[in-house]
Amino acid sequence: MWIDTHCHLDAPEFDADRVEVIARAQQAGVGLMVVPAVSSATFHTSREAALQCKGAYALGIHPLYVRHEPEQAALQALADALQKWQTDPRLVAVGEIGLDHFVPELQDEASKALQERLYVAQLELAVAAGLPVILHVRRSADGLLKHLRRLRDAGRPVAGGIAHAFNGSEQQAQAFLDLGFKLGFGGAMTFDRALQIRRLAATLPDDAIVLETDAPDIPPHWLYQTFQARVQGARSRNEPGELPRMAQTLSDLRGWSLAQTQAQTTRNALQALPRLASILE
Fold first, then answer.
1. pLDDT tens for each residue of 181-240
2. 33-88: per-residue pLDDT in tens?
3. Which residues lie closer than 8 Å to 69 by C-beta, 6 or more apart?
4. Which CATH architecture has domain 2-280?
5. Which residues touch 146 (CB under 8 Å, ≥6 apart)?
6. Bigger pLDDT: 111 or 225?
7. Which of 14, 113, 166, 278 fits 18 for a cystine, CB–CB 3.0-4.6 Å?
8. What is the 3-state secondary structure (H, E, C) of the chain?
9. Looking at residue 178, what is its pLDDT?
């Protein structure tokens, strides 16, 4: 069985055929999917998608959505949802949270400060709830690590989690590992030109890596369409059912058998998100 540790199954891209998408994933051997929310407006849809696929969900405010509602209202909604569903075994993390230092419209000082305040506040909520976190890392690893270390040094460490779609340096990778995190690899790893990501996928410790699709985003190379092709109507939607083929890429890079890859990445996912174990049982 494969675990897709990050797929946005509740996204509008799946509204027309979500049942079929789930069926294809299950037929491919993806037995468990984790659905992270991106805003308070998606808390219920993430949970409902997780229930529909008999998977898991996470609750958080994504850095790309920090302007979608007032800061305090968003944080209160998250606090309330974490309280409401605190005993739900399918709630496995706070996420997707983090910082994005790539999208141009969020790089002014006010937006960066807002991102950071929401990130820090959500880390505090995760600590209070005893939950791991699922981190959005895009040109922001050092900023994310700074606050994780601060909490650790204050004696209130975050309970680990996953650095999603990791594409940082070897030193940053090790820093996340030292803090008890796993690193998420998926579609980007399948591109021959993604030299840094592929090198990390090949050389990180065995217990460092979890698999993810980020569906409907980050399509693997066999689904990728150029901008011009998309303009002309070509489809490049990613699905959780693509995970085993991505796993084959990881197997090839590491010299593992597919069975080894499945066993190790499943073990890693259970370490990163411990509540997944009760769902599997």
1. 999 999 999 999 999 999 999 999 999 999 999 999 999 999 987 767 766 667 789 999
2. 999 999 999 999 999 999 999 999 999 999 999 999 999 999 999 999 999 999 99
3. 39, 40, 41, 77
4. Alpha-Beta Barrel (3.20)
5. none
6. 111
7. 14
8. CEEECCCCCCCHHHCCCHHHHHHHHHHCCEEEEEEECCCHHHHHHHHHHHHHCCCEEEECCCHHHCCCCCHHHHHHHHHHHHHHCCCCCCEEEEEEEEEECCCHHHCCHHHHHHHHHHHHHHHHHHHHHCCCEEEEEECCHHHHHHHHHHHHHCCCCCCCEEEECCCCCHHHHHHHHHCCEEEEECHHHHCCCCHHHHHHHHHCCHHHEEECCCCCCCCCCCCCCCHHHHHCCCCCCCCHHHHHHHHHHHHHHHCCCHHHHHHHHHHHHHHHCCCHHHHHC
9. 98
- Length of the chain counted residue by residue: 281
- What tokens appear for 46 in the block? 């993430």
Question: Token pair for residue 96?
Answer: 């997707």
Task: Name the average pLDDT for the chain.
Answer: 96
The ranges assigned to domains in the chain are: 2-280
Q: Environment class of residue 123 by beta-carbon count within 10 Å: exposed (0-12), middle (13-18) or buried (19+)?
A: buried
pTM for the predicted model, two decimal places: 0.97
The span from the CA of 241 to the CA of 215, in Å, is: 9
Nearest to 252 by CA among 177, 179, 198, 176: 198
